[in-house]
Amino acid sequence: MKVIDIINSKVAPFPSLEFVPPLKGSDISKLYKALEPFMEFKPPFINMTCHRDETTYMEQSDGTYVRHTLTKRPGTVAIAAAVMKRFPIEVVPHIICGGTDKYRIENELIDLNFLDIQNVMALRGEKAIYQKHYTPEKDEYSHSDELVAQIKALNEGKYLDCTLKESIPTNFCIGVAGYPEKHLEAPNMESDIDNLKKKVDAGAEYIITQMFFDNQKFFDYVTLCRKKGITVPIIPGLKPLSSVKHLTMLPQTFAIDMPQTLVSEVLKCRTEDDVYNLGIAWCTAQSKELIANDAPAVHYYTMGKGENVKKVLKNVF
What we know:
- By secondary structure, the chain is an alpha/beta fold.
- 40% of the residues lie in helices and 18% in strands.
- It has an eight-stranded parallel β-barrel with strand order 1-2-5-6-7-8-9-10, surrounded by five helices. Strands 3-4 form a two-stranded antiparallel sheet.
């Protein structure tokens, strides 16, 4: 079932979740064990992240260096199929264009279509570790609206090989990311929302936001989006704060702000357990307020540690 159909058919708000694939060489049973505790909440879909290959330079015996490409995590095609076989749930694989050319993207989409996976999340992805700024290489896209356009074209039966005759259209529902505190590369919020509208105009059917800790920023963001003519559903994304170090790590990593009220409360905590419990309480309050203000769902970033998210879900759903 398509995510947009799930959103439109649900009477009450629901939780969705994001998980990280296991490391290469690991066992998928670890992912199953991470997912199992959430099944009682009946999330209709989960997102599965995708990570670009990493590049390293290895020194040779003659003192020269050779560039090697390392894949740290398996691709999402097999993982999505395995999870959907194991659990009664839709899986939304992340498709990234950073570090992946359009031909490889098309092949991945064809594989997903053969498996009857109807949902994808279209993202640009991060810059390579050797790049100062995101720079597309040959046959790579500069922006995710170009990726959305490629997926939409496939849905219309338009493949990269224009010589194909009677090609079968795919059937993907396309989600994209939004940034209530703007993308770190955007010069201002207005230009960031203009870029979001390009993704929607290209074919995106719903938006899931980056995490935030101040609900007012989400409400303001939705208002700005609607004024720009963006009418698709916008699902807020949340993560419970769980450690004092998150006060600095999360803003640095995701270009977000921490509200001073939360910072003050964290600094009053005597132990890490106190911070952990405060994070659950804060995320619970955020979730309830978002739902009371007509959020169609709440999306939770587990980031490999889901026990606190489970406690939030128990409090909210």
